């Protein structure tokens, strides 16, 4: 199959670039989605560790659950399909907080948001753009760097996304996580998630989940999981090898020039001046 032409890959909705794999009809009708009280929403900007988090959560439950693809991916029949699924549904999304179907908020659904140092997120996204035929071509890191800072990439500005969720970080139904904390002390974060989701779990089981959720373990399992639709969190690729690239903190240092770093920090400091969490995201 030949690749779709560049102009067919992206369209705008409410000022934000979406891939055409999110139909405009679906985006327009998202607000009619009938969320259930026991739905769990996983919020993230792309390339922040969504698959890692989803892997941990699916392993935490010992009752049947369904991990869906992001709510905004697909055509308008998506909402109907989700409707037919039995509970419990774990629903990922790359939408910013203000665009979430309002039922998730009205019904106080539990939401877990994962964030990542935006410099590493940009680098991860660059490689994803380079490898993924469903995303526009980017020729160089320099070109992508500017697009990222301008928010001219799928899901829009990292800054706007983060800030929209940060505003709700103290809501009782929201757990706010950082990729870097998962790297530093995964058992602690798994425990935190289990408490938030009211799941009883022994320390031995936590260790077991952490072992199975290591980067190498998840990467090595890609072949098995490639054929299992329940593992397809990202609708932009059915090739999980694109997801598990390097899995490290600080890869930006291998990409950013000193000049790019200065520019990034200047924009970061300006955009994040009201953020109480900015310090957690810079190193
Ligand atoms: P890199 O491209 O920096 O390697 P998402 O799931 O939101 O698309 O995020 C993908 C990023 O999370 C990739 O980052 C990927 O390698 C990293 N990742 C996935 N699983 C991981 C794991 N078990 N441990 C650490 N990083 C992981």
Report on the architecture of this protein:
This protein is of the alpha/beta class and 283 residues long. The chain has a domain of 181 residues: 3-Layer(aba) Sandwich (Rossmann fold), CATH 3.40.50. The strands form two sheets. The protein has a five-stranded parallel β-sheet with strand order 4-5-3-6-7, with helices on both faces. The chain has a two-stranded antiparallel sheet with strand order 1-2. Helix 9 crosses helix 10. The relative contact order is 0.16. The mean pLDDT is 92. The structure holds adenosine-3'-5'-diphosphate (A3P). The site of adenosine-3'-5'-diphosphate (A3P) has 21 residues, from helix 2, helix 5 and helix 11.
Task: Present the secondary structure layout.
Elements: E1 10-13, E2 16-19, H1 24-29, E3 40-44, H2 50-60, E4 66-67, H3 78-84, E5 89-93, H4 102-106, E6 110-115, H5 118-131, H6 141-150, H7 158-166, E7 174-178, H8 179-184, H9 186-196, H10 203-212, H11 215-220, H12 222-226, H13 258-271
Parallel strand pairs: 3-5, 3-6, 4-5, 6-7
Antiparallel strand pairs: 1-2
Helix pairs in contact: 9-10
The structure holds adenosine-3'-5'-diphosphate (A3P).
Adenosine-3'-5'-diphosphate binds at residues 44, 46-52, 120, 124, 127, 213-215, 218, 243-247, 251.
Summarize the structure.
Keywords: Transferase. By secondary structure, this protein is α/β, with parallel strands linked by helices.
């Amino acid at each position: 199959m030949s690749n779709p032409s560049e102009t067919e890959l992206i369209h705008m909705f409410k000022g934000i670039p979406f891939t055409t794999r999110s139909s405009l009809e679906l985006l327009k009708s998202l607000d009619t989605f009938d969320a259930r009280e026991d739905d769990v929403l996983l919020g993230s900007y792309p390339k922040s560790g969504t698959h890692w988090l989803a892997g941990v959560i699916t392993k935490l439950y010992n009752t049947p659950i369904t991990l869906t693809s992001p709510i905004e991916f697909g055509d308008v029949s998506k909402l109907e399909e989700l409707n037919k699924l039995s509970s419990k549904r774990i629903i990922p999304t790359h939408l910013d907080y203000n665009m979430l179907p309002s039922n998730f908020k009205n019904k106080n659904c539990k939401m877990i948001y994962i964030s990542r140092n935006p410099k590493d997120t940009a680098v991860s996204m660059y490689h994803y753009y380079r490898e993924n035929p469903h995303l526009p071509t980017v020729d160089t890191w320099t070109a992508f760097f500017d697009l990222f800072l301008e928010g001219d990439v799928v899901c829009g500005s990292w800054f706007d996304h983060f800030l929209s969720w940060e505003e709700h970080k103290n809501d009782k139904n929201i757990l706010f996580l950082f990729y870097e904390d998962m790297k530093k002390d995964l058992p602690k974060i798994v425990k935190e998630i289990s408490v938030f989701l009211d799941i009883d779990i022994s320390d031995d089981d936590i260790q077991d989940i952490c072992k199975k959720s290591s980067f190498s373990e998840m990467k090595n399992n890609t072949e098995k999981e490639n054929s299992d639709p329940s593992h397809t969190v990202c609708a932009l690729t059915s090739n999980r090898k694109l997801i598990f690239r390097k899995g490290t903190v600080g890869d930006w240092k291998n990409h950013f020039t000193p000049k790019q770093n200065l520019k990034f920090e200047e924009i970061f400091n300006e955009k994040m001046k009201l953020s109480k969490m900015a310090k957690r995201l810079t190193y």
